[in-house]
Fold this sequence. Notes:
Layout: E1 2-5, H1 13-17, E2 28-33, H2 58-70, E3 76-81, H3 88-97, E4 104-108, H4 119-130, E5 137-139, E6 163-166, E7 184-191, H5 198-212, E8 218-223, H6 230-243, E9 249-254, H7 256-260, E10 282-286, H8 294-297, H9 300-307, E11 320-323, H10 326-334, H11 336-348, E12 352-354
Parallel strand pairs: 1-2, 2-3, 3-4, 4-5, 5-6, 6-7, 7-8, 8-9, 9-10, 10-11, 11-12
Amino acid sequence: MLRRTITSPRLFRSSHQDPGSLGKFIRRLEVSIPLGCTRVAHETFDLSIDRREVELQEQDLTEIINVLRDSARLEIFAVTITSLEIPEASLGRILAALSATLETLLWYSPFSWLEVGDPLFERMWLEFFDNHPLLATIDTPYSEFDLPSSPSLRHVPWPSVRHWSVRVDFAAPLPSERLRNLETLSFLQALDGTMPSFTDFVEDFCTFVSVQGRRLTSITLVLSQGPLPISALVEVLETVKSGCPLLRQIQFLLSPLAAQSDYYPLDIEEIPASVQLPTVRMLGLGFSSLDIPMLENLGVIEWYHALMLPWRKLFPKLEVLRLLLEADVEGLRTHGIYLKKVVKSCSGASLVLEDNFGRALTEDG
């Protein structure tokens, strides 16, 4: 793996002078655009940084594109956008330079409100899918994304795409045959009833699942700190039940603030039995985030209670309860008394408690 950051020395200049000298060895490439914008608490940013350091300079863009063009066998490309100052046309040029051998595109951004405003860039995304027949995994950060309606766009299927992480309904307008082999969906826009766009989000999610869910085997949802109306949750679960006949796994990511509140974001007791999902065999739960470790921000009682919720009322054929994040596993091991209680409860219900690697947890850890 070669890691590349824009603010680092020009490590690839020699590669450009001698095309292919390094590129033929690159299978995974990580790029931060740009690295000068420092993330701190509460997603605020250091305003003392020179503006030139948070803009993508043409020289930097050219170097990135040269490296990508030399990387003819690239399989994984991870780009982190740490500034809103990046022109969409520049990002489009990066997409166009990616090798047709690409299998995974991870497109991160700390900005949950990142929007696509240029129809030309939307068109570039569609062309990117059309031109990368091996693409299997993709993560897109956009909170708003409207597909262009131009009939001139090619409508070829994307049979290779199997894993998709989105924050907005991107693919629902597409015919289901475009994503005929989609298996896993991570819908990363939080289910938060206090958000003004909450109703639109529920509608987006349900539309996506209704159109693209028939082959899904796994779904991930984020439950935020806001109250979640039971009616909305029931609508989501009913849509999943009817639209995803092959679903075997479901993952819930619980925000730290949600676990600290006086209510549970998922009130199982109030959900009617008619929305049970009998096909689900594995439930994954995540409590921590990369920036907010569980033990520093959550009361252990709160997430212990979340683990002990009567999940079988929702998933009557549930076999496995899995902790999704290593920080959560270590937290449970640190508080041995709660680990023993959870393991004992799972054992009594014929459930297997697993760590983030799928290994069974015992009372001793």
